[in-house]
């Protein structure tokens, strides 16, 4: 069967590379009056093994909202870092946003749910945008950062691991684009905050290979 164009996957080559691989160890974090433990503080490493549950050796404290097969890896881009450094007026090292992998770029086109990225031996599939939380704000030492991150609409993406293996700093990245019928990260991100989403848009978002947590949130907002 020949799929219509909007349902086909295409391979596209941009000059994308893996800039940084970042692993977190458990560290204490103060969020307002609450003391907690977090893995958001990441340190770069030259190489890592990635399983279907994420980077081996990376600590995930908040397993209710992070981690698991559908959010095994969090990815951000150097282009996003450049934008933030200009906005904030300070240098930000890779891993500052708690991402596991820092790509040089996501390519010329917006990332869609279902986009796949071949990195070293690993094949990733984008499943959801990152929704900011108080942990990120505390990491950035800015109580207003959740609002700033939402307004910036540069969420990066969570990914499931379709093929496990080893990645190394400097690995080239190949993008295998999702069908054009699937929503972009930006569309999912904005719908998340829509207080009165249209049922048709919710149903459309749910046609994509979303992370299960995001799928549950959108499905719960459908009218009975």
Keywords:
single chain; alpha+beta; M1 Pyruvate Kinase, Domain 3; globular; MoCF_Sase_C; MOSC domain-containing protein; Pyrv_Knase-like_insert_dom_sf; Benzoxazolinone_Detox_Enz
Helix content: 10-25%
Work out the radius of gyration.
17 Å
Output the number of helix runs: 6
Distance between the termini: 35 Å
Number of strands: 13
Domain MOSC: 42-176
Protein name: MOSC domain-containing protein
Organism: Meiothermus taiwanensis WR-220
Pfam families: MOSC
Task: Give an account of the 3D structure.
- By secondary structure, this protein is an alpha+beta fold.
- The chain has a single domain (9-181), classed as M1 Pyruvate Kinase, Domain 3, CATH 2.40.33.20.
- Helix content is 22%, strand content 33%.
- It is built from six helices and 13 strands.
- It has helices at residues 78-88, 134-139, 145-152, 185-193, 199-205, 212-220, and strands at residues 10-24, 27-31, 34-38, 42-45, 47-51, 54-55, 73-77, 101-103, 116-119, 122-129, 157-163, 165-168, 172-177.
- A seven-stranded mixed barrel has the order 1-8-7-11-10-9-13. Strands 6-5-12 form a three-stranded antiparallel β-sheet, with no helix packed on it.
- A hairpin with a 2-residue loop joins β2 and β3 (34-38).
- The radius of gyration is 17 Å and the shape is globular.
- The mean pLDDT is 92.
- InterPro entries: Benzoxazolinone_Detox_Enz, MoCF_Sase_C, Pyrv_Knase-like_insert_dom_sf.
């Amino acid at each position: 069967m020949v799929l219509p164009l909007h349902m086909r996957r295409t391979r596209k080559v941009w000059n994308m590379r893996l800039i940084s691989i970042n692993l977190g160890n458990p560290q204490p974090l103060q969020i307002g009056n609450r003391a907690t433990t977090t893995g958001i503080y990441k340190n770069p490493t030259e190489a890592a093994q990635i399983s279907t549950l994420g980077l081996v050796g990376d600590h995930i404290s908040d397993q209710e909202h992070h981690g698991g097969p559908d959010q095994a890896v969090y990815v951000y881009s150097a282009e996003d870092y450049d934008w933030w450094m200009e906005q904030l007026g300070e240098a930000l090292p890779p891993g500052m946003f708690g991402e596991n992998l820092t790509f040089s770029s996501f390519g010329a086109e917006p990332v869609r749910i279902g986009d796949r990225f071949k990195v070293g031996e690993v094949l990733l599939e984008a499943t959801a945008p990152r929704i900011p939380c108080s942990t990120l704000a505390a990491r950035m030492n800015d109580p207003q950062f959740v609002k700033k991150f939402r307004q910036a609409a540069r969420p990066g993406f969570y990914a499931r691991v379709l093929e496990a293996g080893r990645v190394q700093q400097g690995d080239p990245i190949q993008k295998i684009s999702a069908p054009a019928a699937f929503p972009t990260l930006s569309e999912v991100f904005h719908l998340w905050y829509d207080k009165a989403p249209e049922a048709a848009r919710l149903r459309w978002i749910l046609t994509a290979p979303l992370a299960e947590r995001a799928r549950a949130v959108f499905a719960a907002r459908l009218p009975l």
